């Protein structure tokens, strides 16, 4: 029983990690290539979740909900990239933090104006709502599907970045932006494309996370910080690094919340473990990030820059 | 510009000194809050504006200052001087640890590390269930500074906050003009040269970082006395963003600017929220516009476009 429970927690951790990866992959590309701290990435995730939940409640169609969610986030992403961020690429990080912070305020309020202040109901589609048996223990099918989609996207990204012309430009951009521009590549277009790719991935993450977490205003704010932890640990600009770090963070966080308290109870007395367990579990990943950054300031898999 | 600059500090202090004469409880409350956040923003400006250290976790010290008061009161310790010592000491110690780790890095990594530490402190406080946990905790009594300073009188709290702000404003000006401040500013513009000249830059920066954290902790102590409430929300990362916003709005590297920035931000919040329930949808774009307009290149492009439009009808 405990072994299957542990497996369940491990799978939850992997699923959480995959959701984080979808969010972090775009963020790390935007950060690595455009050198832009985009705090509004969490808003794109939120927009994806809202549009997916609302359109699924309306039309009951998974492809339509996903397509609309991604289209909405890509449209919004393209609009803010062209309208605002283009003016900020050569600026310092502070301006970017402030402008994107303003965008967060705006989008959090905008979804409240459109869909109301209460959380939006998001349900798992009927054909994904069952449980399947994994080594004799029941496990929700939906979470497995989310994990599968995450892995599939990771594979697609691997091919896109490693095997295509666009991918070569993206990699080149992460290594040396100036040189790519000097070689005659349309940097403005490349930036917009990368930003839209990131927006789409964030929306996909949001759409799938809707039924697992709560769809509410500000849902992207804390998730964004987790995604930042992921990309900083993984090495800014490295999708591969984000993948590894997202799994690391997802599993560490989930397992920490599940097992730290009982583990501590073995060492110290029960009351102390009850008090300290959840506290340590919630700051475990931040401690991990501080630890990694202290010894490897560029993260685990920094892209080679010259 | 120089006149404005020279008059800024006396004018700000004079204006703030006169607020209680309006006699409205509401104004008193609002401006106490403005001064508290002004103090927090001022402390951030000291390291951000002068030292180039973009700390994205400054609300953590505000939180530590508040929790020092809240936890002390909950445990039966009401002495104001003890609160002050705990708030300043606790936040200073936290800044020492955070700075010791974070100041070994630069740029983005520094921003992210300060954020990570602030998040740790946030979650640590959120997990303190005996002190309100996520929901927060009422603080039934104020910091007790004896019979002559009853902080439960809003007017007294106002002037105490005013005095703290004035002291740190004037002290801050002296510090940034001192040799110490000069080293901090020089390290911002060329760190390598300062190191080559033999200055232990890390030690100077760490000292500045601890000073900023300590001052912000004092602001947190005042905040707890004003809100009479303790909640981890005051150190949510968005709060750090707000404090940073105040610094930018008022002008970084000026000390008095961030106080004005705090006033602008909080007054804007007040006015907009009275006007519409969805005030954040208005405030957000205003902040974006401020950032964009503060960039010379965007201003030039905008002016050009306007000029073209003005010329256009003549051609038609």
Task: Describe this structure in a few short sentences.
Helices cover 75% and strands 3% of the residues of chain A. Chain A is mostly helical and 306 residues long.
Keywords summarizing the entry:
heterodimer, A: 306 residues, mainly alpha, ABC transporter involved in vitamin B12 uptake, BtuC, two-stranded antiparallel ribbon, 11 helices, 75% helix, globular, B: 2 domains, 13 helices
Structural summary, described in words:
The complex is a heterodimer of chains A (306) and B (316). Chain A is an all-alpha fold and 306 residues long. Chain A has a single domain, classed as ABC transporter involved in vitamin B12 uptake, BtuC, CATH 1.10.3470. Chain A has eleven helices and two strands; from the N terminus they run H-H-H-H-E-E-H-H-H-H-H-H-H. Chain A has helices at residues 2-34, 41-59, 62-83, 93-115, 141-163, 165-175, 177-182, 187-209, 219-234, 239-267, 270-295, and strands spanning 131-134, 137-140. A two-stranded antiparallel ribbon of chain A has the order 1-2. In chain A, helix 1 packs antiparallel against helix 8 and helix 1 packs antiparallel against helix 10 (239-267). The radius of gyration of chain A is 20 Å and the shape is globular. The model of chain A has no long low-confidence stretch (mean pLDDT 86). With 316 residues, chain B is mostly helical. Chain B folds into two domains: 2-275, Orthogonal Bundle (ABC transporter involved in vitamin B12 uptake, BtuC); 280-316. Chain B contains 13 helices and two strands; from the N terminus they run αααααβααααβαααα. Chain B has a two-stranded antiparallel sheet with strand order 1-2. The longest helix of chain B is centred in the C-terminal third of the chain and has 27 residues, at 201-227. Chain B starts with a helix and ends with a helix. The model of chain B has no long low-confidence stretch (mean pLDDT 87). The interface between A and B is large, with 44 and 47 residues.
